[in-house]
Design a protein that fits this description.
Layout: H1 5-19, E1 55-61, H2 66-73, E2 91-92, E3 98-101, E4 105-108, H3 114-125, E5 133-138, E6 142-146, E7 154-157, H4 165-171, E8 179-190, E9 193-199, H5 207-210, E10 219-224, H6 228-256
Parallel strand pairs: 6-10
Antiparallel strand pairs: 1-2, 1-5, 3-4, 6-7, 8-9, 8-10
Helix pairs in contact: 1-6
């Protein structure tokens, strides 16, 4: 009985390559038709609008915010000069676009901007309070950043309305060693669906897009570089080891005959 070792190794390696998932972790593969590379909007064309699962908080002062001025200037107005509670209460926008608020009950805020929500609450609370002054803040705005390696993905909170693409990447730890700076994809939900902007940050020419203002629920995906050799070795090594062990055992058996 003769064993063709070369043929056996070739068969094993072929089996490994055909069944392995080389670079299978790479996400959001696109063609030239899928992405937008020119006329990428630097600033949002529209203000952020509330959607289901958003959370927001608000503060309210009566008399047009007179109390804020009094407190800021050190004027003591008696009982009304008590400081505002530091407890921040968040209100969840339900799936039907409504939010349950104190005194008011259910209020429809779906699709409204922050300014529009403030104006609506000011009008509604004016029934019970004198000239209310209201400030609203969305508390769970965030972007998801994949900086080039899957294990380093981060959810980055947006605390600044003018957070740029470069700031978001920096908050996520920067582009990883394996990330391709010339393949940065920003995926944004619009009225027409989710659009994909592909940005090249590998040259100074991409600096104009580094100041792109990110929006809540943007996906920022830095495409990882393909490592074919390393991935092939990683996938093939266990099978090659198994085949080598089998060859040794068969050789020993043949020797003993």
């Amino acid at each position: 009985m003769k064993v063709n070792i070369t043929l056996l190794l070739f068969f094993g390696i072929s089996l490994a390559l055909s069944s392995c998932g080389v670079n299978s972790h790479i996400m959001f593969k696109t063609t030239k038709e899928d992405v937008i590379v020119d006329n990428i909007p630097i600033s949002p064309s529209d203000a952020y609008r509330l959607a289901p699962d958003d959370k927001f908080s608000f503060i309210m002062y009566v008399e047009g915010g007179k109390r804020i001025i009094d407190l800021g200037s050190g004027i003591n107005t008696g009982d009304d000069a008590q400081t505002q509670s530091s407890v921040q209460i968040e209100y969840l926008v339900r799936n039907d676009g409504k939010v349950d608020l104190p005194i008011l009950g259910l209020v429809d805020v779906f699709g409204l901007t922050i300014i529009e929500v403030q104006d609506k609450l000011r009008e509604l609370y004016a029934v019970n309070y004198i000239d209310p002054f209201i400030q609203v803040e969305v508390t769970n705005r965030r972007v998801i950043v994949f900086p080039g390696t899957g294990g380093d993905a981060k959810v980055v909170p947006i605390t600044n309305n003018n957070t740029t693409l470069m700031e978001a990447i920096a908050l996520a730890g920067g582009i990883t060693e394996r990330g391709k700076a010339n393949k940065v994809k920003v995926m944004r939900q619009t009225k027409e669906g989710r659009e994909v902007y592909e940005i090249d940050l590998s040259t100074i020419g991409g600096l104009k897009y580094a100041d792109m203002i990110v929006q809540s629920n943007d996906y920022i995906y830095v495409e990882p570089a393909k490592q074919l050799t390393r991935e092939l070795l990683k996938e093939a090594t266990p099978i090659i080891s198994l085949i080598s062990s089998a060859i040794v055992i068969i050789s020993v058996i043949l020797t003993l005959k």
